[in-house]
Design brief:
Two copies of one chain form a homodimer.
Chain A lengths: L4 H27 L5 H11 L6 H12 L8 H18 L9 E2 L2 E2 L1 H4 L2 H19 L6 H15 L4 H11 L7 H26 L4 H28 L2 H4 L5 H4 L5 H24 L6 H15 L3
Chain lengths: 301, 301
């Protein structure tokens, strides 16, 4: 695959600009709420720990791609980032992946305490739905997006995927299909929903939503495989979380089953599927999404 | 206070009938979803563990009181019970209250494992919002109720209250006002919201909502004080959870600060405030709510 370095450079600049918009919105929104001090500090600690903000930006860009002013969906996009952040806090807990480091800093339960980390996660998740409800769009569109988000993040999506991930840990003889199902739920569902919700909020027609959904599914798969490869090939400082942790904790991943080289090939194929799904779209937003598909497989962290 | 035993008997029968309706709805709803087996079992284990179902029934009755067919708000009422159930699962975790017994059975993390219990709670909370979105009413009413529910359950409500409860544990020199604030968030907010959401879903006018809100706040306060008294005066078999656990874990409660006798007086005063708030309502639903206020302070478990 030949990467268009220039497009990726432009995309990364736009990604950073949009990420900053989401971060500002989230900080203003949380700061002004009356929340017990320690709980608020814990929520903000993880929300403001950085990250690429890919999910909320996907929501903004897909809404814009479907003709909506992206600023109108900021509350919804912010709520997606809150849900992603809660999932990281809970995944890091001692009873789950037991990770002490996240984005180069102590994970939430290390910086605060386990009870506060559980509650910060619960609060981010609960508040997210309330904030998403303030999105300024047609109420029918908003209700569809809320249902989509809940489904993608809940028992049949992200949370279900995390349960499978825990059950698969240390298991022998899993097939690549098992991993595909687990990853499509654990990571894929929320990335896909971020795209689809943007389109739903903009009132897009069903064939448009289908294309955007295909893009999101393939992007999510490419993203997770790349993540699993980085866990093997990168280092802790670059990643901001412990490198080699999948092998150490006996996780089943793409590279643990088919090796790094074949996994790289699979990731690139998913990136190609993602880009193909957008072939009928033109303009800056479509170009952004296409470059993002290249970026997720070639990123270093 | 002279209790009208006959009204309470009628109320308890109606409460049980409505609770059964909520339970049936929840079971059908969860059973048919595609959820990883162990996660689904864990969610259903706690959802089907019994309980009085006071919160969802309050939602049904308050909707009916405001002229709506209560069956139309079943999805919303069910989602409130899911949120209440998730909060019990997380409260029982070793990092929180570390309780091994709930409703006469091993608590969720004892029956399954800690990771699954955390995820079952997360899934119940997330799925709840999606299911609440399917409530059949005017979308403006539904959005108001969703915001109310999120606010009551989140960082400024139930989760914030649980954080305060953890911080207050073992602290000396707390005032009764500190306890009032903590309990109004931890228990009061969701009980009040259960009532208010019923009224909101029915499109009630603001002065009606205000009365119902006052009822819900006072009922929530009465309920929690009664709970704290029962922890001291009752036994583990009757309660279905360890009696005496507040004292053992050095929790600050009404009776720990002003004693059992004064606490009983306070609970009865709150029950009176709750009943007064409904003085302008007539009919079966109002009678049910009034008897419920008596019941929560005189119940044995």
């Amino acid at each position: 695959m030949v990467l268009d370095e220039n497009s990726i450079f432009t995309m990364k600049k736009t990604l950073a600009r949009r990420a900053a918009k989401v971060e500002t919105w989230l900080s203003i929104c949380l700061e002004k709420r009356e929340i017990p001090e320690r709980l608020k500090a814990s929520m903000l600690y993880s929300l403001q720990a950085g990250g690429k903000r890919i999910r909320p930006v996907l929501c903004l860009v897909c809404a814009s791609l479907c003709g909506m002013n992206e600023d109108n969906v900021l509350p919804f996009a912010g709520s997606i980032e809150m849900i992603h952040t809660y999932s990281l806090i809970h995944d890091d807990l001692p009873a789950m992946d037991d990770d002490d480091l996240r984005r180069g800093k102590p994970s939430n339960h290390k910086a605060f305490d386990e009870a506060t980390a559980i509650l910060a996660g619960d609060a981010l998740l609960t508040d997210a739905f309330g904030l998403a409800c303030t999105t300024n769009t047609d109420l029918t569109f908003l209700l569809s997006a809320l249902k989509e988000l809940s489904f993608a993040a809940g028992s049949s999506g992200m949370v279900g995927g995390q349960e499978l991930d825990m059950l698969f840990t240390g298991k022998k003889n899993l097939s690549l299909d098992d991993i595909k199902v687990m990853q499509s739920m654990k990571t894929g569902a929320l990335i896909r929903a971020s795209c689809v919700c943007g389109a739903l909020l903009a009132g897009a027609k069903s064939e448009i939503i289908d294309s955007i959904s295909s893009y999101g599914s393939a992007l999510g798969a490419a993203f997770q495989i790349a993540d699993d490869i980085l866990d093997i090939t990168s280092d802790t400082v670059t990643l901001g979380k412990p490198a080699g942790s999948d092998e150490k904790s006996d996780k089943n991943t793409y590279p643990s089953i088919i090796g790094v080289k074949n996994s790289r090939q699979e990731a690139q194929e998913y990136a190609m599927i993602a880009k193909d799904a957008l072939s009928k779209f033109t303009g800056n937003d479509a170009e952004f999404l296409i470059s993002l598909a290249d970026y997720v497989v070639q990123r270093a962290s």
